[in-house]
Amino acid sequence: MSGARAVVRSHRGARERERGMVSAELAAAVPALLLVLVVGLTAVRLGVDEVRCVDAARLAARALARGDSQEVAVGLAVRAGPGGSAVTVRAAGAEVDVEVTAGRELPGWGRITVRGAAVAQREDRGGPATG
Known about the structure:
It contains two helices and three strands; from the N terminus they run ααβββ. 18% of the residues are buried. It is 58% helix and 24% strand. It has helices spanning 2-66, 70-80; strands spanning 86-92, 95-106, 110-121. The radius of gyration is 30 Å and the shape is rod-shaped. A three-stranded antiparallel sheet has the order 1-2-3.
């Protein structure tokens, strides 16, 4: 009967050692999971900012193509783009080109710039054709 007790005791000791191993594995896995989460959320944030830059550039290009002033178009782009975005407008002949850029300071990575650009043809402001 004492032999059965010894088996039970050694089984309990192994179970406690395994519990300690699980705690150590969990302690190592949690920081890794948090790092993956932070990197993933940062990538999503940069992706959203890039989409906002593209949308802002398209909005400004359409406004310029309709004949709105450059100040109005830039104002639309600044409001539609991410915070702190810069708008560049170039016009050449019948085309307008708008680029919206926004910089993000990421801890540990430095500054990352996202961009969006759009080109539009100016609309013909002439009256309807009569024939």
